């Protein structure tokens, strides 16, 4: 029989995001964050393309993101409530790591596999933060899919997009669990 890592399995079977709006300072410091990012970068990556990178947003950068979100919202014709909600996510965030998908040219690895890997980096960062006792939440938001916003606010290149905005901080309270998938509905067992 294999030797289980019971603590790791207990974590995976009970892990739960903490809503960004409930997160407060302090956020992980730079040394702590480097450990979390190291764990996140230890992610399956077909062809060793490293089709992702990190942008750590803190302090005045979060205020700048809030302002850029407002400008994007006005330009996109979003209503005032949607703009205010998106703005407050940035203004109130203790720290955010933008996980950037970087599409690399490859004859072997199709673009969708690079997208999967970038998503896996997001989950790895989320789990590393939660396992370290930080509150963490993976958000996107309408602005993250807007080319103008990501070019202006994050200086992303044409081959880059936002895989996730990972908000990290100290949790005030743990949320109740949410309904989880019915395994029978999503699993097919095939033995012939
Ligand atoms: C790619 C992606 C983008 C998301 N964007 C948002 C978002 O913009 N706003 C939101 O309220 N939740 C968003 N969520 C959902 C939150 O991350 C939510 O906290 C999560 O589903 C909770 O999962 P957990 O309880 O298993 O940790 C997103 C999830 C993913 C995977």
UniProtKB/TrEMBL annotation:
PANTHER family according to UniProt: NAD(P)H NITROREDUCTASE YDJA-RELATED (PTHR43821:SF1)
EC id: 1.-.-.-
Pfam families attached to this UniProt entry: Nitroreductase
Cofactor remark from the record: Binds 1 FMN per subunit.
GO molecular function, one term: oxidoreductase activity
UniProt keyword annotations, A-Z: Flavoprotein, FMN, NAD, NADP, Oxidoreductase
Descriptive protein name: Putative NAD(P)H nitroreductase
Family: Belongs to the nitroreductase family.
Residues that coordinate or bind FMN: 15-17, 42, 46, 138-140
Organism name: Sagittula marina
InterPro entries referenced in this protein's UniProt entry, alphabetically: NAD(P)H_nitroreductase (IPR052530), Nitroreductase (IPR029479), Nitroreductase-like (IPR000415), YdjA-like (IPR026021)
Nitroreductase domain mapped to chain residues: 21-169
Cofactor(s) annotated in UniProt: FMN
């Amino acid at each position: 029989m294999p030797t289980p890592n019971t603590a790791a399995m207990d974590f995976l079977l009970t892990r739960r995001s903490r809503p960004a709006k409930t997160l407060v300072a302090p956020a992980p410091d730079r040394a702590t964050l480097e450990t979390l990012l190291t764990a996140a970068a230890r992610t399956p990556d077909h062809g060793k393309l490293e089709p992702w990178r990190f942008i750590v947003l803190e302090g005045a950068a979060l205020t700048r993101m809030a302002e850029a979100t407002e400008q994007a919202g006005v330009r996109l014709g979003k209503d005032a409530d949607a703009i205010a909600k998106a703005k407050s996510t940035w203004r109130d965030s203790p720290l955010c790591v933008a996980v950037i998908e970087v599409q690399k040219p490859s004859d072997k690895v199709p673009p969708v596999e690079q997208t999967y890997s970038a998503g896996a980096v997001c989950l790895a960062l989320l789990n590393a933060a939660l396992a370290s006792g930080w509150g963490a939440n993976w958000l996107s938001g309408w602005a993250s899919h807007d080319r103008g916003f990501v070019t202006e606010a994050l200086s992303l290149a044409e081959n880059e997009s936002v895989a996730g905005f990972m908000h990290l901080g100290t949790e005030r309270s743990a949320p109740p669990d949410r309904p989880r998938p019915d395994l029978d509905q999503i699993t097919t067992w095939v033995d012939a």
